[in-house]
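TICKET: design request
STATUS: open
ATTACHED STRUCTURE:
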C-alpha cells in the first residue's frame, strides 16, 4: 500500500518485493551465520535493530526509484537476521533454562493479529504514509527491547564448540533431510499467502470474511503454541513434522474443493498443524536434537530456505498457474505433504 502511494506500478511493486524476499534469505545466511557463540546473539540483535531503524528512516526522504530500491535491499538485508537470531536466542533458553517456547512464541502471533487489524483502521484515517510511521515506531520498540541486560545471560558454557558455518552444515545428510521436510511444509503455504483471498472472493466470500478466516487461522496457531508443552512435550521432531505433513495433505486438498464457508472454517483450523506444529517441530529439532554448535547455522538455514526461498519459489509457481487452475492450484500444495511425510519418518537426532 505504501509503495503504491509512491506512484509505483503493480509490476514495479512486484519486482521490489521479490528482490526484497531474495535479499532477506541472503541476510539470514550471510549475517546470522557470522555469530559463533550464544553470547553474541543479543549484541548482534541490538546492532541490527538499530541499523534497520536508521535505514527505515531513510524512507522519509523524497523517494526516487534508485533510492527506494537501495533502501529496500539494505533494510531487507539488515532486518532479516533478526528473526533467526531471536529464534536462536529462544532455542538457547529452551536448552539453558527449560523455557516454554510455545508460550513465548505465541505473542508474536497475537501481535500479528492486533497490528494487522490496527493498521486497517490507521491507514483508513491517515492514509498510506501511516504505514511508514508505524514501521518506524515498532522498529524503535524492537531496538529499545534489546537494551536491557538479560536476567539469565545466554551462554554456551566454557567447553562449547564454536558454531559451524552453514556450508559445512549442509554436508550433514540428516540436516539436509530436515531442511527438505520443512521447506516442503512451509512452501506449501505459498498459494494460501498469495491467492487465498482472490480464490475465496471468486467463491462469493467477502473481503471482511476472508480477513476473519485468516484471523481464525492465527487464533488456532496461538492456541497450539499455548498448549504445546502440555500436548507435545514428549514427542520427537520427527513425530511433530510427520503430523504437520499429514495436515498439509488434508488442509490443501480440502481447500482446493471447499465451496462453503463452514468448510473453510474447519480447514483453517488446520493452520495450527501445518504452520505451528511444523515450526514447533523445527525448533524441537534445532534445540534438542542437534549438537549445540549446529544451532545458529541451522536456524539461519531454516529461516532462509524454508521461510523465505521455498515460499518465494512456490509463489512463483502458483502465480503462473493460478489463472488456469484456480482453486485446484492448492492440490499442488497438498502434494508437497507426501515427500515431507515420507522424509519425516526417517528423521533422527544427531548426537554431540
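STATUS: resolved
RESOLUTION: sequence designed for all positions
ATTACHED SEQUENCE:
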Amino acid at each position: 500500500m505504501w509503495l503504491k502511494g509512491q506512484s509505483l506500478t503493480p509490476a514495479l511493486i512486484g519486482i521490489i518485493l521479490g528482490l526484497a524476499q531474495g535479499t532477506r534469505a541472503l541476510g539470514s545466511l550471510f549475517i546470522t551465520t557470522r555469530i559463533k557463540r550464544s553470547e553474541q546473539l543479543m549484541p548482534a540483535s541490538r546492532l541490527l535493530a538499530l541499523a534497520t531503524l536508521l535505514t527505515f528512516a531513510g524512507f522519509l526522504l523524497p523517494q526516487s526509484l534508485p533510492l527506494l530500491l537501495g533502501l529496500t535491499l539494505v533494510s531487507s538485508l539488515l532486518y532479516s537476521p533478526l528473526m533467526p537470531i531471536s529464534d536462536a536466542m529462544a532455542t538457547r533458553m529452551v536448552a539453558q533454562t527449560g523455557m516454554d517456547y510455545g508460550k513465548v512464541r505465541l505473542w508474536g502471533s497475537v501481535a500479528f493479529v492486533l497490528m494487522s487489524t490496527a493498521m486497517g483502521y490507521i491507514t483508513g484515517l491517515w492514509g498510506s504514509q501511516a504505514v511508514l510511521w508505524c514501521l518506524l515506531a515498532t522498529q524503535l520498540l524492537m531496538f529499545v527491547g534489546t537494551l536491557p541486560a538479560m536476567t539469565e545471560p545466554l551462554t554456551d558454557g566454557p567447553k562449547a564448540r564454536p558454531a559451524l558455518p552453514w556450508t559445512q552444515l549442509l554436508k550433514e545428510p540428516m540436516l539436509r533431510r530436515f531442511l527438505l521436510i520443512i521447506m516442503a511444509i512451509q512452501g506449501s503455504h505459498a498459494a494460501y499467502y498469495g491467492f487465498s483471498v482472490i480464490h475465496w472472493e471468486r467463491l462469493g466470500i467477502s473481503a471482511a470474511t476472508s480477513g476473519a478466516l485468516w484471523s481464525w487461522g492465527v487464533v488456532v496457531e496461538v492456541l497450539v503454541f499455548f498448549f504445546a508443552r502440555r500436548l507435545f512435550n514428549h514427542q520427537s521432531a520427527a513425530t511433530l513434522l510427520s503430523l504437520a505433513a499429514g495436515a498439509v495433505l488434508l488442509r490443501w486438498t480440502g481447500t482446493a474443493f471447499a465451496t462453503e464457508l463452514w468448510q473453510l472454517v474447519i480447514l483453517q483450523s488446520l493452520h495450527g498443524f501445518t504452520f505451528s506444529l511444523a515450526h514447533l517441530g523445527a525448533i524441537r529439532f534445532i534445540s534438542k536434537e542437534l549438537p549445540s554448535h549446529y544451532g545458529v547455522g541451522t536456524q539461519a538455514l531454516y529461516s532462509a530456505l524454508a521461510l523465505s526461498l521455498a515460499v518465494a519459489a512456490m509463489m512463483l509457481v502458483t502465480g503462473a498457474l493460478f489463472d488456469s487452475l484456480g482453486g485446484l492450484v492448492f492440490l499442488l500444495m497438498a502434494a508437497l505433504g507426501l515427500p515431507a511425510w515420507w522424509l519425516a519418518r526417517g528423521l533422527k537426532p544427531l548426537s554431540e
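CLOSING REMARK: The mean pLDDT is 88. The longest helix spans residues 295-325.
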